[in-house]
């Protein structure tokens, strides 16, 4: 029978955080999320956690499971072991139990302007893009904003203004996009003291990304692009 | 994107790697020359003195080593401090202290080298 040790904390009560232990039935193929729902429906209706799609698309159920950040819906209990320790995402304020305040995460995402900024007037019909041009953004569009990388990044832990791996990965998606005309503006912002050069290439984000998107590699590419832009005089002053 | 922010970390990041590459080359060469390629017993002050006075390139090599080493060390410490987003006052104080330390260390290193010739 698997045992769940779940992080519990309610800032409204002022009580200390603690781990609560639950015994679950042994069901073949049961995921961590199904286990949490079992607890919610049968053992403890006060447990709080986020989830939505249950199929690894929405990114709502990212949490620290066992030894690293994972999606609860994509992780089977059998893959972790008999005892599963579950904690919320790190570096963000806890609202309750496994639910954290994602405001700083989405603020950094918004800061990189995650939308196309075309050169001049947009075309009257669709933007044309060749398969080769599209392939440059292929993997980066798959980010589901689960914040597993953000929670695992030690630079985020010490510097709340650091953009973080998710925002930087998404920034490369727009820098690489042939339809976007604001490459130098984007690189100018990404090369500031809050951007790519704060990254210490620790690879935590790469290790935990449930979609295998390699944020560390994306940041490395942005570093090179920023350096080239700097030495060719294309970087602008921000502010 | 309205807040005024510098991109100083771009240059310090680049120079940290550039100085790191130089130091890797320096240490490899220095250790080889002093410990493996030196065939006549233990290396002495006279041997080092002879090498430095006999070649402009060795002089240049060691004169470059001092500032590169000082920069790499202090910039590395600053990178650790910068991770903790220090206050403006603490940043100015730390940078001023690092500049003074860098100038003193470089001067002492250069003075020592000059007296070897």
Series of H and E elements of chain B: HHHH
Question: What is the gyration radius of chain A calculated from CA atoms?
Answer: 20 Å
Question: Could you give the distance between the termini of chain A?
Answer: 58 Å
* CATH C-level label of chain B: Mainly Alpha
Quick one: CATH superfamily of the largest domain in chain A?
Answer: Alpha-helical ferredoxin
Taking the sheet with the most strands of chain B, its summary is: none
Average pLDDT of chain B works out at: 87
Strand content of chain A: 5-15%
3D architecture notes:
The complex is a heterodimer of chains A (239) and B (117). With 239 residues, chain A is an alpha+beta fold. Chain A folds into two domains: 3-100, Ubiquitin-like (UB roll) (Roll); 103-231, Alpha-helical ferredoxin (Fumarate Reductase Iron-sulfur Protein, Chain B, domain 2, Orthogonal Bundle). Chain A has ten helices and seven strands. In chain A, the strands form two sheets. Chain A has a five-stranded mixed β-sheet. Chain A has a two-stranded antiparallel sheet with strand order 6-7. In chain A, α8 (183-190) packs across α10 (215-231). Chain A is elongated. Chain A starts with a strand and ends in an 8-residue tail after the last helix. The relative contact order of chain A is 0.12. In chain B, α1 packs across α3 (56-82). Chain B is mainly α. Chain B has four helices and no strands. Chain B is elongated. Chain B has a single domain, classed as Up-down Bundle (3 helical TM bundles of succinate and fumarate reductases). Classes of the chains: A alpha+beta (239), B mainly alpha (117). At the A-B interface, α10 of A face α1 of B.
Quickly list its features.
heterodimer; A: 239 residues; alpha+beta; Ubiquitin-like (UB roll); Fumarate Reductase Iron-sulfur Protein, Chain B, domain 2; 2 domains; five-stranded mixed β-sheet; 10 helices; 7 strands; 34% helix; elongated; B: 117 residues; mainly alpha; 3 helical TM bundles of succinate and fumarate reductases; 4 helices
């Amino acid at each position: 029978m698997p045992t769940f040790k779940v992080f519990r904390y309610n800032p409204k009560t002022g009580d200390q955080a603690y781990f609560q232990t639950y015994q679950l039935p042994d069901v073949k193929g049961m995921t961590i999320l199904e286990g949490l729902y079992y607890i919610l429906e049968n053992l403890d209706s006060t447990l709080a956690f986020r989830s939505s799609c249950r199929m690894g698309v929405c990114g709502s159920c990212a949490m620290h499971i066992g030894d690293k950040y994972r999606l609860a819906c994509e992780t089977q209990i059998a893959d972790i072991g008999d005892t599963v320790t579950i904690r919320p995402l790190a570096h963000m304020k806890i609202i309750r139990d496994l639910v954290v305040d994602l405001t700083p995460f989405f603020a950094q995402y918004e800061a990189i302007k995650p939308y196309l900024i075309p050169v001049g007037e947009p075309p009257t019909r669709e933007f044309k893009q060749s398969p080769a041009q599209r392939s440059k953004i292929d993997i980066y569009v798959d980010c589901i904003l689960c914040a597993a990388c953000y929670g695992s990044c030690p630079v985020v832990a010490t510097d709340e203004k650091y953009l973080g791996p998710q925002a930087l990965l998404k920034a490369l998606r727009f820098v690489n996009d042939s339809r976007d005309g604001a490459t130098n503006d984007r690189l100018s912002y990404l090369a500031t003291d809050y951007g790519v050069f704060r990254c210490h290439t620790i690879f935590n984000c790469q290790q935990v990304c449930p979609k295998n998107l390699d944020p560390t590699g994306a940041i490395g590419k942005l570093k090179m692009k920023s350096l080239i832009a700097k030495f060719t005089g294309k970087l602008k002053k921000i502010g | 994107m309205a807040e005024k922010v510098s991109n100083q970390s771009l240059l310090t990041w680049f120079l940290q790697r550039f100085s790191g590459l130089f130091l890797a080359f320096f240490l490899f060469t220095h250790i080889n020359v002093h410990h493996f390629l030196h065939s006549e017993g233990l290396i002495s002050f006279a041997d080092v003195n002879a090498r430095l006075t006999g070649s402009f390139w060795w002089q240049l090599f060691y004169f470059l080593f001092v500032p590169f080493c000082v920069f790499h060390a202090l910039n590395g410490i600053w990178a650790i401090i910068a991770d903790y987003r220090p206050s403006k006052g603490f940043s100015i104080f730390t940078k001023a202290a690092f500049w003074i330390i860098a100038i003193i260390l470089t001067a002492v290193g250069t003075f020592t080298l000059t007296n070897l010739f």
